[in-house]
Amino acid sequence: MWIVKKDSFLSIVADQTNKETLLVRGRLKGDVEAVFPHAKVTKTPDADYFYRAFLPRNDVRQAISEIVESLDYPNFKSSVKSNYRHDIYMRLWQVMFDAQSILN
């Protein structure tokens, strides 16, 4: 699952060795910590996501719930303050916008 926030982009997948744990991955430094400030994040430059942390499912569930509860903007793209991140997200938005026209 991808979680895209105004200050972070995360990929969350099952831990292959422990079903009570999830692997939270980020491509940019600080993205995992933006959502999980106490996570022990390791840098894995040979992997597709450079930054990763193994976290209990319940901690991830709670964090996602808090993200939903704290939503306060009517337009996601306008809420992104970082110009660099905004440009990245706009590219993702465009790809999905194009897919909508092609696949529907």
Describe the structure.
The chain has 104 residues and is α+β, with helices and mostly antiparallel strands. Helix content is 41%, strand content 24%. It has four helices and five strands; from the N terminus they run βββαββααα. The chain has helices at 31-35, 57-69, 76-79, 83-103, and strands at residues 2-5, 8-14, 21-26, 42-43, 51-56. The protein has a five-stranded antiparallel β-sheet. A hairpin with a 2-residue loop joins β1 (2-5) and β2 (8-14).
Summarize the model shown.
The chain is of the alpha+beta class and 104 residues long. The protein has helices at residues 31-35, 57-69, 76-79, 83-103, and strands at residues 2-5, 8-14, 21-26, 42-43, 51-56.
Descriptive terms for the model:
104 residues
Helix-strand blueprint:
Elements (H helix, E strand, L loop, with lengths): L1 E4 L2 E7 L6 E6 L4 H5 L6 E2 L7 E6 H13 L6 H4 L3 H21 L1
Antiparallel strand pairs: 1-2, 2-3, 3-5, 4-5
Range of helix content: 40-55%
pLDDT average, as an integer? 96
Strand order of the largest sheet: 1-2-3-5-4
Q: Spans with pLDDT under 50 lasting ≥5 residues?
A: none
String of helices and strands: EEEHEEHHH
Largest sheet: 5 strands, antiparallel
Strand-pairing-aware structural class:
alpha+beta
Distance between the termini: 22 Å
